[in-house]
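hey
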């Protein structure tokens, strides 16, 4: 879906169309993804730029019975002992400064509004959170890790790699939802998959063929216009 908000003097390239049409999809068809496609996406994504070419990412991909087992273990932990699990890093500060706090509030309103979930509907919100644990029922689950000995710079590189994965997937008709939420269940993930002790779980990703009905109805997350985040000098 291309939005009316996008104003540019240029015609969009094919790549830009892919960039603009990507969105965090949380509704997937019950349709398997050919493993060759997943490998092909990762093969293209690895060409991401990285400082000093250190290529700090590792990714663990689970489908079929491995994915089911992983989902069962995470869901059980979420149902029985959510308080025992926390991420190895902080994603956002405890107090979010402006303008970010307002954007977060707007995200909540758009997101929960699109699902018909009210502000006070604790049960429905919890059910939505639980869907995170099932990778939103997507057939492919990816876990992105980074070597904990690396510095912030390498986290930039990982982000570029993850973006490449999302765009390559979109270009092949696949949708994704990146998830920081599951980083709190790193101990469970570690038990189910083979992670080295140096690997820090940064985020996960649900990947699959998106539900076309939802794609038609889904809200466009508000995006800050260029003039609000860019300053131009001499052009
Ligand atoms: C690093 C990262 C972590 C995210 N974590 C979650 C998550 O845990 N659960 C979720 O439902 N969405 C998650 N999202 C999706 C964001 O909510 C979504 O990207 C944002 O609202 C913008 O919407 P759009 O991707 O559709 O443009 C995450 C996205 C990113 C990039």
């Amino acid at each position: 879906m291309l939005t009316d908000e996008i104003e540019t003097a240029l015609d969009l390239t094919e790549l830009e169309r892919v960039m603009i049409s990507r969105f965090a999809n949380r509704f997937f068809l019950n349709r398997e993804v050919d493993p060759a496609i997943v490998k092909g996406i990762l093969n293209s994504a690895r060409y991401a730029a990285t400082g000093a070419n250190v290529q700090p990412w590792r990714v663990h991909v689970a489908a079929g019975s491995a994915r089911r087992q992983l989902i069962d273990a995470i869901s059980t932990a979420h149902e029985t002992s959510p308080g025992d699990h926390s991420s190895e890093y902080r994603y956002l500060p405890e107090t979010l400064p402006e303008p970010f706090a307002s954007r977060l509030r707007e995200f909540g309103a758009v997101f929960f509004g699109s699902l018909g979930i009210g502000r006070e509907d604790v049960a429905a919100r919890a059910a939505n959170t639980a869907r995170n644990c099932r990778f939103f029922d997507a057939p492919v689950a990816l876990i992105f890790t980074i070597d904990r000995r690396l510095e912030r710079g390498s986290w930039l590189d990982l982000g570029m790699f993850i973006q490449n994965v999302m765009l390559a997937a979109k270009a092949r008709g696949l949708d994704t939802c990146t998830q920081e939420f599951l980083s709190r269940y790193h101990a469970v993930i570690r038990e189910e998959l083979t992670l080295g002790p140096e690997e820090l779980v940064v985020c996960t990703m649900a990947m699959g063929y998106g539900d076309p009905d939802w794609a038609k109805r889904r809200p466009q997350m508000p995006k800050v216009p260029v003039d609000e985040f860019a300053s131009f000098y001499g052009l």
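The domain at 22-83+133-216 is CATH 3.40.109.10 (NADH Oxidase). The radius of gyration is 18 Å.
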